[in-house]
Amino acid sequence: xxxxxxxxxxxxxxxxxxxxxxxxxxxxxxxxxxxxxxxxxxxxxxxxxxxxxxxxxxxxxxxxxxxxxxxxxxxxxxxxxxxxxxxxxxxxxxxxxxxxxxxxxxxxxxxxxxxxxxxxxxxxxxxxxxxxxxxxxxxxxxxxxxxxxxxxxxxxxxxxxxxxxxxxxxxxxxxxxxxxxxxxxxxxxxxxxxxxxxxxxxxxxxxxxxxxxxxxxxxxxxxxxxxxxxxxxxxxxxxxxxxxxxxxxxxxxxxxxxxxxxxxxxxxxxxxxxxxxxxxxxxxxxxxxxxxxxxxxxxxxxxxxxxxxxxxxxxxxxxxxxxxxxxxxxxxxxxxxxxxxxxxxxxxxxxxxxxxxxxxxxxxxxxxxxxxxxxxxxxxxxxxxxxxxxxxxxxxxxxxxxxxxxxxxxxxxxxxxxxx
Length: 420
Fold this sequence. Notes:
The chain is an alpha/beta fold. Helix content is 35%, strand content 15%.
């Protein structure tokens, strides 16, 4: 279905603008008036990462007058495989700073507004209220639900994209015209049930495929051309090179945009999505000292895992323990629960590979030697905390999780190793 243009036309185009945007002006669905709407539009991009990178470049090239970018992260070398708005020289710089500089080099006629903050319930409404369209390139569930709820409360459409490995999805959530994100995805998945791109990987060029579709949708919303993806979910499989469209509908019982909404303001989205809290420190004697629980009182592995005590060990403490084990002065198992590809990037010497799924199905407890302390590790400490809780819940004593995971090991023990 067509939607009236969201943005009124701006001033008459200059000769320079007409020359730059000539190929748009030739399109009947855009023309001079549509290009003036684009020049008068304000689009916020949430995240200057994989999806935000192509989106920022194409929004700038299209002549969107004001482009906001919100991100509190810095550029890392592992970003460069897909985040094309950044370059080698940008490593260590704030992503918003790098993105703004690149956008200016693409089109100096557009204005870039930097929001060097993490979007949260305290600032989202104030930031989003200044824009006509929100393009969501977030890589985590708390931000996705936050952006949705803020857009519903403000009456804004938001163009959502999601990527993982070789698959991507795009839709336009617009409460009152079609469904919002919560109509289709009412509840977030359990913590760590859906691996992130940082742990599962992503085809770099997939970001361009999905990000460019997001920009096309934003352009259609601004100019009133075509049929935006309101009420439709576009699903892309880059391995099979297929695009499928699913019909999605507004939910009358949606707590945000339904007939009797119960969400009338922004909430604590970390708590809503049950992001796990870190467990207690590892006791000096090597015994579990606390429970790793989520904000709702349950860990990623469920109530039984949350109720079981397990400990936490730092990277420097683990290094000392490994030296003692090498000398024969200490016995313990170091278990790596990550994916095989992750271990190929970086590993801790002496770690045994035992995937997290083996803990979830209860097999790990039988595969590890009885009476031997266990330290579990992953990338950042989230999956290892789940595995440690599950192992402790099975009745095993002397179980600990490596705080900060292999990232902490590289930071505190061996900075020569790569990170991802």
